[in-house]
Amino acid sequence: xxxxxxxxxxxxxxxxxxxxxxxxxxxxxxxxxxxxxxxxxxxxxxxxxxxxxxxxxxxxxxxxxxxxxxxxxxxxxxxxxxxxxxxxxxxxxxxxxxxxxxxxxxxxxxxxxxxxxxxxxxxxxxxxxxxxxxxxxxxxxxxxxxxxxxxxxxxxxxxxxxxxxxxxxxxxxxxxxxxxxxxxxxxxxxxxxxxxxxxxxxxxxxxxxxxxxxxxxxxxxxxxxxxxxxxxxxxxxxxxxxxxxxxxxxxxx
Length: 253
What we know:
By secondary structure, this protein is mainly alpha-helical. It folds into 2 domains: about 5-110; about 125-250, hpI Integrase, Chain A (Orthogonal Bundle), CATH 1.10.443.
């Protein structure tokens, strides 16, 4: 049987998602992350020879094992598990018109239910914790200065992590009276948020330090490799400093 998996994946990622669906690079990266993880699971955990990976690999039993592996071994959240399942189903729905003989195989996967997540109570930080959090980054390091600017921007604008990821230099506007940040949310919703003097000063210094003053299309917050920070990366930064702030607050109480 001809193995068309690589052909379908190539068309899916290089034509269907970016051109036909017009999805952002960030969203496409999330889809790619799903398939890299799934195929690595098949090779490393299920011991399937990489040459044998094909559409037959996408069966209900293996997909369920992969989802359980994410949740129980990799300690991924239920929302991440559900996201991976949705991404796999999206790919199979793309493939199906060319593989109608696989209707039962694919339908068995489509029938896997999303797992109900337990609603978490939103955690709010007191003003004191927030002030302590903003004192944690080490300002004698490049990453520390970046992290302080990131945290100040995040809390001053009320941005979602996904909005911060997509923030570009051109989205920051400075003038004599105010500084604004243009945020792009879900459904192409745009918000223009004025920010306070301290955060404005941090952003000016950060942009100058990284020589971004004329690089309007560059992402604002990037890693050492000049790659845009990911959602898990930003969440890690937040949790790291929040944990340090909470510990210091506890010790001083």
